[in-house]
Amino acid sequence: MPSGPGPIPDSLIRDIAETVPPAVATFLLTCETTAKPIIAQQRYCRTNTIQLVDAVVDGVHDALRDALPGISLVQVIHVRDEIALREAVDVSGKVDAILLDSGQPTLAVKQLGGTGGLIAIDKNGEIASPFNTTGMYRGYVDPKGKFVVEIYK
């Protein structure tokens, strides 16, 4: 499983999902890449959304749709270069949502998003040179028109 606090057991995922009201989305994050184990994991955990944190093999999205009607699918796309944009377009008709992730899934211990990485796309749709920081930088314009940049660590 990826970096962070680590995976939680499927039994705990199921316990948590059972306490959540039906109108609230419950997410199962899975690193599985083939349909059979993803279907089994969702049926056990009983979440209403599956987040596929890795690229899946051909046909998986269709198999999940057939086996798990009513379950939402979110595909994570790891943005490292312009190929990610093509991947997002290709999968867009097969899932309910796409999550663009700044992590590095090819490391020995996968580093997924939320670690301070940046996804920068210029006006031409080109990926700008990515960089990592020790914190997450957020910028906005306040109601008075002042530009603000803050660092969250």
Number of strands: 6
Question: Element order, helices and strands?
Answer: HEHEHEHEEE
Domain count: 1
CATH topology: TIM Barrel
What shape does the CA trace take? globular
Mean pLDDT reading = 80
By secondary-structure content and strand pairing, the structural class works out as alpha/beta
**Rg calc:** 17 Å
What does the oligomeric state look like here?
Answer: single chain
**Stretches where pLDDT falls below 50 for ≥5 residues?**
none
Number of continuous helical runs: 4
What is the beta-strand fraction?
Answer: 15-25%
CATH architectural grouping: Alpha-Beta Barrel
Name the strands of the widest sheet in spatial order: 1-2-3-4
- Biggest sheet architecture: 4 strands, parallel
Q: In which range does the helix fraction lie? A: 10-25%
General description of the model:
The protein is α/β, with parallel strands linked by helices and 153 residues long. It has one domain: TIM Barrel. The chain is 25% helix and 21% strand. It is globular. The model has no long low-confidence stretch (mean pLDDT 80).
Short description:
This protein has helices spanning 10-19, 35-45, 60-67, 83-91, and strands spanning 27-30, 49-52, 72-78, 97-101, 136-141, 147-152.
List the defining traits of the structure above:
TIM Barrel, 25% helix, 21% strand, four-stranded parallel sheet
